[in-house]
TrEMBL record:
<dbReference type="InterPro" id="IPR013785">
    <property type="entry name" value="Aldolase_TIM"/>
</dbReference>
<dbReference type="GO" id="GO:0015930">
    <property type="term" value="F:glutamate synthase activity"/>
</dbReference>
<dbReference type="InterPro" id="IPR002932">
    <property type="entry name" value="Glu_synthdom"/>
</dbReference>
<protein>
    <submittedName>
        <fullName>Glutamate synthase</fullName>
    </submittedName>
</protein>
<feature type="domain" description="Glutamate synthase">
    <location>
        <begin position="195"/>
        <end position="305"/>
    </location>
</feature>
<dbReference type="GO" id="GO:0006537">
    <property type="term" value="P:glutamate biosynthetic process"/>
</dbReference>
<dbReference type="Pfam" id="PF01645">
    <property type="entry name" value="Glu_synthase"/>
</dbReference>
<comment type="similarity">
    <text>Belongs to the glutamate synthase family.</text>
</comment>
């Protein structure tokens, strides 16, 4: 399906793995993020942003960036300038083709109080605003660790919850004598209401947001159903559901291990909601699935599971950990190559320079010419991971199903290997697939 029945044409490299989510074109069915105010995001931003732009996918700038920016300027309780936010957006746009992917700015309670959406829409020309209700890694607000008393006091003064209280004399004394080594900055949890959210989405559009989206975590089935209802009523452009198993490092370990709904279970729940809405003529927003996605096989299964007839509900997956890992490793190995300290087995297998050990370097050099030198190794690593590992992998898998377009893959292309998987997803086990075919084909 999706190509002429010709052996010279039906090659995996001709498979179309592009997607469209909420009216945003994607070269691959991926959004990266959301990368907020954590240190790991800041340290690897060039790789993440440029890599996402080269790949033609959505880059989500996460929560708390403006208020956490040491150089931020405020006026009457609103953000007036953020060097960090401007740099994050500009870094992506340097290599953005203006057609595939885009920058999305995520806002939580703290950001809304600062009018971050007004700033990024009016001053920075951002097209996509994402409201955040939660994440799969934890059922509380975002957090980061603060190493100095001065920084902790600054953030406390900016309205954040900082623990222990950096302005408490006892805490100050404890920090000075070494018994307190660091502080935690926590974000408040939103209290969404249906009417207020619908009005909020309308106001964001009036302010100039071209796309309005929603990000939420993996809570009870009641919450999943209510969220889908509200997202439908507000007609958000797309919604991201984040299953347990994800997160980029700043979550309490017991909460990551024991709370929220695992991604497959969550997807099964929200697909029930999507079908009910669709069957009753209600608006169904496009969906991005998040929660521990790393491999192209997982991406394909998620999208296929959501296609009951002609068009998948899930248009992309949102990935956090794996692009960061690619950026970090790309930077690390480039540094070792420059210092002549590459492991001998690595050098023997992959080469001794960036141009040798990144398979995408030749095509990027041809496409970007003199600007190739402006692409850092960390970005090349992210692009190689997204474009060559995931992209080519998806093409091969889809060719294996004999479908040359991503939107053609559906539930019939899947089989469950365990009874539990079959029970949760509604996908039959292998021995149950096409059980009527034998006599029909052999005897008719």
């Amino acid at each position: 399906q999706g190509i002429e029945e010709d052996s010279d044409e039906a090659l995996f490299e001709n498979v179309d793995v592009s997607s469209e989510m909420g009216g945003v074109n994607l070269k691959l069915p991926i959004a990266t993020g959301a990368y907020g105010s954590t240190e790991v995001a800041k340290r690897n931003w060039n790789g993440l942003a440029i890599g996402a732009a080269l790949s033609g996918v959505i880059l989500v700038i996460g929560e708390n960036v403006c208020r956490m920016d040491p150089k931020a300027k405020f006026s009457n309780g609103s953000i007036e300038y953020s060097e960090d936010m401007e740099n994050r957006i500009e870094t992506y746009r340097k290599f953005w083709d203006g057609e595939n992917g885009d920058v999305s700015v995520q806002t939580n309670v703290e950001d809304e109080r600062l009018d971050v959406e007004d700033y990024v829409i009016n001053d920075l020309g951002v097209n996509i605003i994402e409201r955040k209700w939660g994440q799969g890694a934890k059922a509380i607000g975002g957090e980061v660790r603060i190493d100095t008393l001065e920084r902790a006091q600054t953030l406390k003064g900016r309205g954040y919850i900082v623990l222990p209280d950096p302005k408490d004399p006892v805490v100050i004394e404890g920090y000075k004598d070494g018994s307190i080594e660091s502080f935690e900055r926590h974000s408040r949890v939103g209290m969404p209401k249906e009417k207020s959210f619908v009005e909020d989405v309308e106001q964001l559009r009036e302010k100039g947001a071209k796309k309005v989206t929603l990000k939420t975590g993996a809570y009870r089935p009641e919450d999943v159903a209510w969220t889908m209802r509200v997202a439908s009523e507000a007609e958000v452009d797309y919604i991201t559901f984040d299953g347990a198993g994800g997160g980029t490092g700043m979550s309490p370990v017991p909460m990551m291990n024991e709370m929220s709904t695992p991604t497959v279970y969550l997807e099964a729940q929200l697909l029930k909601c999507a079908k009910i809405l669709e069957d009753n003529g209600k608006y169904v927003p496009d969906i991005s699935m998040a929660g521990g996605f790393i491999q192209e096989t997982q991406i394909l299964k998620s999208i296929a599971l959501s296609n009951f007839d002609s068009d998948p509900f899930i248009k992309s997956v949102t990935m956090g950990r794996s692009p960061i890992t690619a950026a970090f490793k790309g930077k690390q190995f480039a540094k070792k190559a420059k210092e002549g300290k590459l492991p001998s087995n690595f050098e023997k297998k992959h080469g001794s320079s960036v141009d040798e050990f990144f398979v995408s370097s030749a095509s990027l050099k041809e496409e970007y010419g003199d600007d190739y030198d402006k692409i850092p190794p960390s970005a090349m690593a992210v692009y190689t991971y997204i474009h060559d590992r995931i992209g080519v992998g998806l093409q091969q898998l889809l060719a294996g199903t004999r479908k040359w377009n991503l939107e053609l893959v559906n539930r019939d292309d899947l089989a469950a290997l365990t009874e539990r998987a079959s029970e949760v997803t509604g996908i039959p086990m292998i021995h149950q697939k096409e059980s009527d075919v034998y006599e029909r084909l052999l005897l008719d």
